[in-house]
């Protein structure tokens, strides 16, 4: 059921103010830590950490390097979210009350993920990114079920959460594939191509599940689809060039990207008509 509250109908409390300030400061620390740890501010890039386990050519499911530019958009959205939620008039916003701590938790987990990779713990990074994905899924459920309140706050929240969840969904699959390769399990006896196509089909199915569940909230499911399509597209491009070529995986990735892009548009349009 969608919460019907559409306005801030109660004054902010001291707990709200503490939350706002903590999320603002915590977001700043998490974003700076992530930038330093990822090599954006100097130091070792993530692609070179852990013996290159997460590089663009480590596995057939690794997105090509340009895919990771989406992080600049996600971090910008998180920074704007942190600022908007801290505005005095947003203190009692019911949506922000419901998700702000979770969003901060996701940012801290992302910084922890980078620390795990820089510490050469690919297995640890998988554990962290799965928890991160679960946290983002909780936020997704909340923003779908709670009606929009203030226009700016609601749209910033939806767009940012959507892009974040969509990208992390693809990154979790790539990260897991990297761990299996490092652990010597790799293709699970299926062969690299077959295994990769199965995982890409699962990604397409996941994108449809997101679209169906959030069909009445296009502001969040369309960004999810865009981010997933972006990541899947770059997996496909990566398999058409460079040292790790695989036409079958490339085709499957492009098809999955198309599904991810179109699914939320179709479900949102259908929901509006009904």
Structure, explained:
- The chain is mainly α and 274 residues long.
- It has one domain (14-53, 60-273).
- It contains eight helices and no strands.
- Helix 1 runs parallel beside helix 3 (94-118) and helix 6 (192-213) runs parallel beside helix 8.
Largest sheet properties: none
> Mean pLDDT, as a whole number?
91
Given the C-alpha coordinates, what overall shape results? globular
Query: Percentage of helical residues?
Result: 55-70%
The figure for the number of domains is 1
Q: What is the chain-wise order of helices and strands?
A: HHHHHHHH
Structural category: mainly alpha
Beta-strand residue percentage? under 5%
Rounded to the nearest angstrom, the radius of gyration is: 19 Å
GO cellular component, one term: membrane
Organism: Cellulomonas shaoxiangyii
InterPro entries: TspO/MBR-related_sf, TspO_MBR
Transmembrane segments: 21-41, 68-87, 99-116, 122-141, 161-186, 192-213, 220-237, 249-271
List the helices and strands and how they pair.
Blueprint: H1 14-37, H2 70-85, H3 94-118, H4 122-145, H5 151-182, H6 192-213, H7 218-238, H8 247-273
Short description:
With 274 residues, this protein is mostly helical.
Attribute tags:
274 residues, mainly alpha, disordered N terminus
